[in-house]
Amino acid sequence: MTISATSVRFDEHTMWVELSDGRTLGVPLAWFPRLLHATSAERDQVELSRVGLHWEALDEDISIAGLLAGRGDVTRSTENAA
Predict the structure, then answer these.
(1) DSSP states of 55-66 as a string?
(2) What gap in Å lies between CA 78 and CA 71, rounded to an integer?
(3) Residue 28, strand partner residues
(4) What angle do CA 42, 68, 65 make, to 5 degrees?
(5) Which of 14, 46, 47, 70 would be 54's cystine partner, CB 3.0–4.6 Å?
(6) Can you tell me the distance from the alpha carbon of 43 to that of 55, in angstroms, rounded to the nearest whole number?
(7) Smallest Cα–Cα separation from 74: which of 66, 22, 28?
(8) Beta carbons within 8 Å of 56's beta carbon, 6+ residues apart
(9) What are the DSSP E strand ranges found in 1-82?
């Protein structure tokens, strides 16, 4: 069974993702700087797919598998990378 997002909503600091298996994930917006700095209107332009979330105007893609694994924005470079 593939778990997918059924809806997404935001409050001031959190993205809330409702999943097809009944769970709700609360994810800090700080994990995704593009969403953190986006307007409410930009955040509302989310496209749900079988595997994740996409914001065309923000060039942001988030996989459900990544959220479930606790991963934030993997496009940022880390200072301690080997």
Answers:
(1) ETTTTEEEEHHH
(2) 14
(3) 14
(4) 80
(5) 47
(6) 7
(7) 66
(8) 45, 47
(9) 5-10, 14-19, 24-28, 47-48, 52-55, 60-63
pTM of the shown model: 0.86
Q: What is the pLDDT of residues 7-63, one digit of tens each?
A: 999 999 999 999 999 999 999 999 999 999 999 999 999 999 999 999 999 999 999
Contacts for 33 with CB less than 8 Å, ≥ 6 apart: 73, 76
DSSP label of 35: H
- The C-alpha atoms of residue 72 and residue 63 are separated, in whole angstroms, by 10
* Distance from C-alpha of 22 to C-alpha of 40, rounded to nearest angstrom: 25
**Mode of pairing for the β-strands spanning 60-63 and 5-10:** unpaired
Read off the amino acid at residue 79. E
Beta bridge partners of 24: 18
Question: Residue 21 has which token pair?
Answer: 């298996």
